[in-house]
Amino acid sequence: MLCGWIATEYPEYDKETSMIPLTTGSVAEFYIEPMLPFVGDIDVMYHFNTYLAKPRGHPPPTQLPAEFHNYVYAVDIIDSHLPGYVYLPVRYLLTKCVDDGTYNYIEYDETVNVSNEMIETDERHMHGPAVLIDHSKTSQLSVDFVHCYRSLSWPPQAADWPSRHRNYGWPDSAILDRVVSNGCDVVGVAHRQCRRREWMDKIQFRLSFSRAEILLINRWMPIQQIVYHLLRYFIKTEQLTDCADNSEAGTLSNYHIKTLMLWACELKSRSWWTENLNLVRICVELLQTLSVWLTDTRCPHYFINNCNLLDVSLSDGATTSKLMSIDETYLSTWLVNNYVRQCAQLCPPYIIRLFDDVSSSMKLQNAVSEIAGWRLNNSLIDQWDAVEFAEMHIPLIMSSFSVNVQSCFYWINELSKIHECFSAYFSAVALLYVARKLLVNGFSDKLMDILATVCRRNFSHCCSVLSLHKPTCKLNVSYSELVVLLQKYAVEHLTTYCQLVARDFGSVVTIVTTDFEALYAYKHGDYQRCLQLSTPNVHTLFKGLFHGFRMSSVTTLSVFIQLLDDDIVSLIALTLIVNRNCTDESNNVTISQLTLSLYLMTQCQLKLHHSVTSLAQTLHYIKVAQRTHPRERTLDQLMLKLIEHKINSSAWTV
Fold first, then answer.
1. Residue 118 within any structural domain of the chain
2. pTM
3. Which of 75, 361, 425, 469 holds its CA 20 to 30 A away from the CA of 286?
């Protein structure tokens, strides 16, 4: 989701250049969900679509991915005297042909080395090659932005890596091909030895294999990811690392742990990891290997031959001595005291008290089992919190910043990696965004391109639904008719989204799947259909309420306003006035599914002239809902008060 935000908030770095982001580091590498946090910040690499790096001697490409600009500077990757470090002189200017989309090129007579310098501001500070955006004062994670140059080619410096002999067949040929086809990146940081040489410090770069590492680590077995997590946690807790995910020589870092694990996954058999499974044994053996590396002052780069990530000794040797002294008894005791007990602190008091006495292995096992059980029972709730966060912030970001084809592409690409439901949700929000813009500004090529991106997998169906035809894409319907079609299509996606989240989270959250359908039917005067949908929704939501389940909400941000009726829109405006905590969209206003369903059911009953008896039952539901919703949920309380007043007024009229 972060990549979509970056591409949306910063769609154009300047008039010609756009940022192409990629989430890297721990967030992208881990698929396990440890009890204790393993992510300190979020790492994002980004390159500009007007630059491309290529190995020296390779001809300039004639085809480029669609993300690149019509004019692209091609820089050569030239070896420095240090393995893994390079220079980037500008060599070609590529120009895209309008007719066939291929690129022509002209060569620069004089080459100019690209600089690795970055501008620092009051809100940003450097963290290795990264610019750190610090969110420590909020609940959000800080973000490390690393500027890079994208190379679509695998670097010659690592030419031996794909073909070297592997006794145990890891990585397999398929993943090797994927890694090589992804190419690499080049990040702006000079080698430690060159930082006192002014000209080298400004123009030297380091080869980055983050894309390769993500692919490889995501192919690890769960036991390998768990070991990686535990090693990182141990090194960090014992303050043996600077915690920077880099390959700086002279300091032990997370990158050395990653390198250790990559070599172990290649050099150890599958049975070494899985037979007689013993996490402590595996960790101890790997820490012993690391101590040997430190003693010998060598840490072989996983991808580049003859590249040592430890070309100088650690300053005091204390780290080496500590690692050499670790055995299974020490590490198992350490894990219980420093990891398991920390996990227990996240649990209810009755679990914490179990650790008052873990004098026997059976008591310890029972205590750990209670932690694991509690974690399993609560993991879905944690995931649901993340779903609700995304559900609110996707439309918020899209409403606040300019959306274009590129940002849509990254939203779709990144959200699909998180959960399939978000693809449907983003498509709905994007369609509503287009409908809203259409009403204000009319149709444009930009809106058409966004629609094509959102519906790229089935564009012909999209054109059919929207009554458009190619290649001119002229409208066969009026703007008002097109808006209705877009809204209808968006509601279909929202219904799919609700069905997917209900499938995966229905055991902890009560979710009805037809509330948007009911809302759409009500907005278009189909009160009988709306009543048929909203009545069972009310019953389902009250049943979940009785069993203590959480209840989901519907956002009312600007893109969703068009789906709501005038009364709800007026109440939203009133809420913003009454509740000072909702003075802008970032604080969000939501309606619980129960309130919305009760509102629709009541309105339809009144419009269809239902009996006093049925209205009395609805009034009872409203009274219960009023007691259930906290007073600070201003919009819910106002809506419930409104329909209560309407029922009472109707009763007096009768």
1. yes
2. 0.80
3. 361
